[in-house]
Amino acid sequence: MQYLLSVINDRPDLATSDEQAAIDVFNDQLQADGYWVFAGGLGSPSTATVVDNRGEEPVFTDGPFVESKEFLIGFWVIEAPDLDVALKLATDGSKACQRKVEVRPFL
Amino acid sequence: MSVTDVQEAITQAHHDEWARVVASLTRRFGDLDIAEEATADAFATAVARWPADGVPPNPAAWLTTTANHKAIDRIRRESKRDDKQKAAQMLYDDEPPEPLGAVEDERLRLIFTCCHPALAMETRVALTLRMVGGLTVPEIARAFLVQESAMGQRITRAKAKIKAARIPYRVPSVEDLPERVSGVLAVLFLVFNEGYLATGPDTDPVRRELTAEAIRLTRLIRTLMPDDGEVAGLLALMLLIDARRTARVSASGELVPLDEQDRGAWDTALVAEGHRLVRERLASGVAPGRYQILAAINAVHTSVREFRDTDWSQVVALYDQLVRLDPSPIVALNRAVAVAELDGPEVALATVDRLEDTLAGYHAYHVTRADLLRRLGRSQQSRAAYDRAIELAGNTAEIAYLTRRRDQLG
User: Fold this and answer.
1) Taking CA B374 as the corner, what is the angle to CA B345 and CA B362, rounded to the nearest 5 degrees?
2) What does B303-365 look like in DSSP terms, one character per residue?
3) pLDDT per residue over B204-259, tens digit each?
4) How far is Cα B251 from Cα B84, in angstroms, rounded to an integer?
5) What DSSP character marks residue B172?
6) Does A1 sit within 8 Å of B172, measured CB to CB?
7) Residue B54, SS3?
């Protein structure tokens, strides 16, 4: 079973070097324990471009599709047997990156 | 066998067997939804057939077998419609749970799943009452004053989340157990409190069905986890509070405070059982948790025939112990009530006034202040505090009591 662990950013700054170091340790542990599928950090919402090609012509819009104080800053995709394990990993992940983490199952 | 006897047998079987049947079907079919519906179907069949066929010699076995057949029928019907649904099964752990000092019982898995921390508190309450308590959706909706459709949706959504997010069907590991047990107890205490101090303008001040259900479920958990101190503590606490139920509301529907209660009307059997549990915990020598301390406080209150004989220094000492575990303003407020009896209302008021920032929106804060100010002869301030308390209180009996007290001020 795979889960998406979304890291929610609610502060102006990006990860500090201490946080980055803690995230590296956490990532190594995920890999060593066999939970790791994929992970990544994202650029800030101001670097986003929204594409809408539902009409006749594609429309490109500068910026995120919703402006909000809280936004996705990174994520992990993990393989875990059940939600208890996923929540435990998210607990450690939240500590490492010092941000809230949302856990959602893949269908 | 008379019709009443059959009805009684069905009610008894519902009390004794509902959770067991739901739990064993959940285990077998890996699906809470199917387990719930098939169990409900089996009881409906019992209601239809037992009056004519007679109560089977082993009602539990009859119900389990019938529910199993209903579940298989249902799965056959559904698998024709939707193969994908059939494939999505709940995960359960085949390992027997770690020894808890109790026989392994499927119902524990069910309880821990319904009270999983990934579910909202109100959802845990609803799901526990439905799956473990066997209350119907309309009954639960009425208990919490929400629309039946909204309650139905809440339960449906919870079952869908359990399945989709794979909330496991198992007893938590020893390492997580204390926290998860305290989550379960919080659910039961919430049900009890809503019954004991029911809110809403048109509701009875005491909702016996909720307090009784909370006690019944806590007793069940106690049989499953007999060595857990906090489970025993919560049961003792509920019993010692419930023992005073009839003395707590007057004939005219007014709340009767502890110092004015007719102690002869207390239920001596419940008091004795509560005291026995508290003594058992004291004898264990293990440091008590929150519910055990609260139970001990209630044991002090219920061990004297007259209010004036209450051992207040012991009550305050127990609150001191509780403050160390839970330094919340609500505990500090309750401690101040006991301090008023030991050191006088002036000392207590000084403590209470310091809690204003956090408790200004809590009716009990104003109730306590109003009473202390009244005892200090500060009528005008007391009246204002009663006004605020009445505004914030939700229990009809308490509002009636506070209104009379306010109107008696000089």
Assistant:
1) 80
2) T-SSGGG--HHHHHHHHHHHHHH---HHHHHHHHHHHHHHH-HHHHHHHHHTTHHHHTT-HHH
3) 777 888 899 899 999 989 988 899 999 999 999 999 999 999 999 998 889 999 99
4) 59
5) P
6) no
7) coil
Domain that holds residue A81: 2-105
What is the C-alpha separation between B87 and A89, in angstroms, rounded? 26
Restricting to A residues 3-22, those with a Cβ less than 8 Å away from any Cβ of B are: none
Asked if residue A86 lies in contact with residue A5, where contact means CB atoms within 8 angstroms, the answer is yes
DSSP label at residue B249: B
Select from B116, B166, B176 the Cβ nearest to the Cβ of A105: B166
- Which of B166, B167, B169, B177 to mutate to probe the A interface, most A CBs <10 Å? B166
Q: What structural domains does chain B harbor?
A: 3-87 (no CATH), 227-248+259-308 (no CATH), 311-410 (1.25.40.10)
Provide the terminal-to-terminal Cα distance of chain B, rounded to the nearest Å: 64
For B199-216, give the secondary structure using H, E and C: CCCCCCCCCHHHHHHHHH
Give chain A's domain count: 1
Who's near B164: CB < 8 A, 6+ residues apart?
A: A105, A107, B88
How many Å apart are CA B333 and CA B398, to the nearest integer? 18
The model's pLDDT over B33-85, given as tens digits with 9 standing for 90+, comes to: 999 999 999 999 999 999 999 999 999 999 999 999 999 999 888 776 655 54
Contact A95/B at CB under 8 A: no
pTM for this model (two decimals): 0.83
